[in-house]
Amino acid sequence: MNIQWYPGHMAKARRMLTESVKLVDVVIEMVDARAPAATRNPDFDAIFGAKPRVVVLNKADLADSARTKAWIAYYKKQGMDAISFSANAGKGVKEAVALVERVTRPTVERLKSKGVNKTVRAMIVGIPNVGKSTFINRLRGTAVAKAGDKPGVTRGKQWIIVGPYLEFLDTPGMLWPKFEDKQAAQRLAFIGSIRNEIMDNEALAMRLLEFLRDEMPGAIEARLKFAPEAEMTGGQMLETACRKRGWILSGARPDIERAASLILDEFRSGKMGRITMETPPREEENHAQGD
Ligand SMILES: Nc1nc2c(ncn2[C@@H]2O[C@H](COP(=O)(O)OP(=O)(O)OP(=O)(O)O)[C@@H](O)[C@H]2O)c(=O)[nH]1
Ligand SMILES: [Mg+2]
What we know:
alpha/beta
């Protein structure tokens, strides 16, 4: 899988973020709790510099809760406040507001002592489709930011008033120029953060089945009605799934195309079970990197 993706609108998004960060008190970096490392944009460190930044692990309802906790502990150890969130269900609203308040308290208090009621401005950033707009809508309580089930829904930045002294800047999802780590790129594709058009659905579904066979064979058994054997290829598993689930065309040919897109959909919507594909780097690795 060779992905080189940096269309013009991503370059524009980068410029916009660089400009916008000057207008806000805190940056909320949203990652997908199912792949907190792969969905983290490595460019953000350079773009946001010293601006206070917090992490929200969204789509926690689709992720493994023990691993989500481990990731939160990891971020905190790195000196970054973090919470989990389920924007769809609206779980974590109080914690999210408290998080923003915690980080911006010194500025708010300083101004209060001068008699000024400061409006806190937070910018939400992250790669496409992690749930930035849905998160803002949840915090506000009404759906004002456009959200949707595909990457690239938010096109430009948009200020949204969340409370009397709280405003959020919604921004378009931003990917990074090169996906050096092919495994990470694959995880992005599994969860649907990379557009389907630049990936072959069938190849992707085969890779996903191989991943599930190794990590979560129970999901294949439960949803696709067969026990995957260790030596089965992704292609063989896809064909078997067609037969077991009745995705068959005339002439008894397996409907591979349909199977691929249905399997990807089932995985992405959590029907195959809650799964986190990544664990936080271990202590020793951190030290090794710092040496
Ligand atoms: N299961 C689940 N789905 C979510 C959650 N948050 C958002 N979604 C869904 O994810 C999809 C993307 O949500 P958006 O809010 O449009 O994502 P975004 O980050 O604003 O995307 P772009 O504007 O394209 O960058 C939508 O179909 C949402 O309903 C969540 O916590 N859990
Ligand atoms: Mg959006």
